[in-house]
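Example S7 (structure tokens).
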């Protein structure tokens, strides 16, 4: 835990800046398009602020449910771009798309998507039938996958 305190935007300021969104404490950072609620775990580091701005970007870009996993990477990338270009400067947060932390977020997302596309029987890459089901073209196994509840698959340090 970093003991140095730096001036960070607090949650009340952020709530004030986005009156059209609801903010609630949650287990992880996430965005619920149905209730227009952003859940935040805490707001005590740059990492937390970056993740919160990323969720706000999902809200501002009106990201809802997706049908195919392949769309997820584009959704994640566009939310980071919006967070970096439009939101971070307002909170004096220096973030760049080529920051290793952002790239690692996207890489971990790609890895996670790849793993869930692998057939549990034969390890071939399956074809996604709908948002919750994959089918293997080699052995015809079908398997179900969960919707991603959070963008925060892994924690990376943003310096
Ligand atoms: Zn298979
Ligand atoms: Zn995201």
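Recovered sequence:
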């Amino acid at each position: 835990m970093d003991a140095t305190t730096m001036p960070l935007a607090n949650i009340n300021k952020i709530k004030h800046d986005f009156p059209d969104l609801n903010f609630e404490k949650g287990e992880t950072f996430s965005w619920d398009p149905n209730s227009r609620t952003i859940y935040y775990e805490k707001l005590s580091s740059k990492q937390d602020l970056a993740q919160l701005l990323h969720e706000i970007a999902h809200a501002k870009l009106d990201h809802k449910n997706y049908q195919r996993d392949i769309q997820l990477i584009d959704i994640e990338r566009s939310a980071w771009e919006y967070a970096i270009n439009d939101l971070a400067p307002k909170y004096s947060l220096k973030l760049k798309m080529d920051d290793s932390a952002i790239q690692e977020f996207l890489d971990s997302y790609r890895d996670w998507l790849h793993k869930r596309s692998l057939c549990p029987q034969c390890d071939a890459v399956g074809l996604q039938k709908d948002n919750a089901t994959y089918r293997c073209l080699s052995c015809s196994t079908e398997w179900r996958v969960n919707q991603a509840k959070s963008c925060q698959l892994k924690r990376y340090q943003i310096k």
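Notes on this example. The chain has four helices and six strands.
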